[in-house]
Amino acid sequence: MNKQMTAAQVVAQLKDGMTVGIGGWGPRRKPMALVREILRSSLKDLTVVSYGGADVGMLCAAGKVRKVVFAFVSLDFIPLEPYFRLARQAGGIEVMEIDEGMMLLGLRAAAWGVPFIPTEVGLGTDVINRNPAIKVIDSPYDDKEWVAMPALQLDVSLLHADRADVRGVCQIAGPDHYMDDWFARAAAKTYVSCDELVDSSYFHDPAQARLVHWERSMTTGVIPIPGGAHPTSCSPLYGFDVPHFKAYAASAKEESGLQGYLDKFLGASEDEYQNNVGGLAAIRVIELPTY
Amino acid sequence: MTAATEYTLAELCIVAASQAFADDGEVLGTGIGVIPRLAASLAMKTSNPDLMMTDSEAWMLSEPNPLGKRPAGFKPALESWMGFSRIFDNVWSGKRHAMLGPSQIDRFGQTNTSALGGTYEKPKSMMLGARGFPGNSISHPNSFFVPDHNTRVFLGGECDFVSSIGYNPARLPKGHSLDDVDIRLVITNLCVMDFGGPNHQIRLVSLHPGVTAEQVQANTGYAVCIPDTVPTTQAPTREQLDIISVLDPQNQRAQQIKDNPAGDPAPGVPAAGVPA
């Protein structure tokens, strides 16, 4: 089965009001080329589930988002994502603010086909008080109350991998695949952009196959876009683009806001975008971050 | 072990904060931010060699990494993979002690990392979000570092958003006891505190050189339990300062407390008295 497609074909599958999971973590390995294709579209009213970074900030500022399910939205070295802050402070978006681990449990519940997973995480805090949709229940086995973290059912997940073949075998070669495997499993459809399209024989090497974190049956589409995570990192291929993120954050303080940023960088296609940010060769030599 | 006479307040805080991990045994020590990370690293190098640590990315280390950009050819002492999903397996096992810097800490030890002011629907200032604080606070011990001890952080009322559970009877979940909450040390630029006062009241543990208990109370929006005698925070030893300088070769610690003041503003002068 050949699952190769384009970013435009992915976005054509999306509908207003869908719940979209976005993989990666903060400024790390986000499917930004797919996010940019959404920015070029007329999509709106999305619910976004994300360990959030500029993916969430951009989509909020561009008016694509009705609701954000999040534990944080951060660019790491710029701790507070500037456009998510503005969106929250304007009161314009609904939120489901939960603990990082609760998000993982919600994705697992969806992946496993169970309505909830019990946990003590959230008890005594406002992630329960502010989320009437999250129930606290009695246990059949002890006298304590437990949070019933509901399944986070995703219509679609958008992920970025280092490599994939056309059948949807996806490899994350960096040190952490974050929760991307759970995003893939929690979604009805999962679209994966990748830096490199490889032949299936690439995975015959066990050292390469070991870095495949979900089965190809979980992958709906594969979109080869070298540099497609920019300005986020795709370790070990390239780091996140610090000067670009600084310019992005600075744009939030200007009157033109995100539109000014988009006018300067977005372009009509990923090729145009990459030209506007200095070209693929420049992306590929961005230094990896030191933690 | 020789007490140093010249050290910065940041270094005093690192050493005081490292005490939080001294008796932890074999748990994951997570220090978020420069001073907490150096504190956990110092503990691993001195008082608690059994402490576990990550590289803040995806690996467990058997030796803490120095902060900042490391020289070419530097080989971190990896001991296992520890990606973020696995962090939660560790958190929920309870074998972890985290030290973090929340935006607010109220009289119950509840903290806020999420949003300040306004309404929840339209906060005046959006911060990070709840992050992992809800899970950390109910799963394992936690300590806090506050670089600027004032009544905005230690606020009079309850936190605008409660990110982490504290010793608040009104929020106690069914079947739990307040003793299930385990807040260890609160290290600030003025003092060290814990929640060991009557009914888990915040309590002064030690005062940094030159700081008075009145000053701590004046900068805290709720009553601090002040014992009859309060020791002065122990000065770093030369050995500890040497280890800190190796762990932080680019001196990032100098940027953590406003104006990087000396740890002892008047070396050789006895510490300010505390009320009898």
Model description:
- The complex is a heterodimer of chains A (291) and B (276).
- Chain A has helices at residues 7-13, 32-39, 54-61, 82-89, 100-112, 126-129, 180-186, 206-209, 242-251, 257-265, 270-276, 280-284; strands spanning 19-22, 46-50, 65-70, 94-97, 116-119, 135-138, 145-150, 154-164, 170-171, 187-197, 221-224.
- By secondary structure, chain A is an alpha/beta fold.
- Chain A has one domain: Glutaconate Coenzyme A-transferase, CATH 3.40.1080.
- In chain A, strands 1, 2, 3, 4, 8, 9, 10 and 11 form an 8-stranded mixed sheet that branches. Chain A has a 3-stranded antiparallel sheet with strand order 5-7-6.
- The radius of gyration of chain A is 19 Å and the shape is globular.
- Chain B has 276 residues and is of the alpha/beta class.
- Chain B has a single domain (9-255), classed as Glutaconate Coenzyme A-transferase.
- In chain B, strands 1-5-10-11-12-13 form a 6-stranded mixed sheet, with helices on both faces. In chain B, strands 2-3-4 form a 3-stranded antiparallel sheet. In chain B, strands 6-7 form a two-stranded antiparallel sheet.
- In chain B, a hairpin with an 8-residue loop joins strand 12 (191-194) and strand 13.
- Chain B is globular and about 50 Å long.
- The two termini of chain B are 31 Å apart.
- The relative contact order of chain B is 0.20.
- At the A-B interface, helix 4, helix 5 and helix 6 of A face helix 3, strand 9 and helix 4 of B.
Order of helices and strands of chain A: HEHEHEHEHEHEEEEHEHEHHHH
Task: Assign a percent range to the helix content of chain A.
Answer: 25-40%
Largest sheet of chain B: 6 strands, mixed
Instruction: Give the overall form of chain A.
Output: globular
Average pLDDT number of chain B: 96
Major beta sheet summary of chain A: 8 strands, mixed
- Which strand order does the major sheet of chain B show? 1-5-10-11-12-13
Q: Measured on Cα atoms, how large is the radius of gyration of chain B?
A: 19 Å
Strand content of chain A: 15-25%
User: Would you identify the CATH H-level superfamily of chain B?
Assistant: Glutaconate Coenzyme A-transferase
Tally the beta strands of chain A.
Answer: 11
Greatest interface (CB-CB under 8 A), with counts per chain: A-B, 47 and 53 residues
Number of helices of chain B: 6
Helix content class of chain B: 10-25%
What is the CATH topology classification name of chain A?
Answer: Glutaconate Coenzyme A-transferase
Please write the CATH class name of chain B: Alpha Beta
Helix/strand/pairing category of chain B: alpha/beta
How far apart, in Å, are the first and last alpha carbons of chain B?
31 Å
Rg over CA atoms of chain A: 19 Å
CATH-scheme architecture of chain B:
3-Layer(aba) Sandwich
**Helix vs. strand class of chain A:** alpha/beta
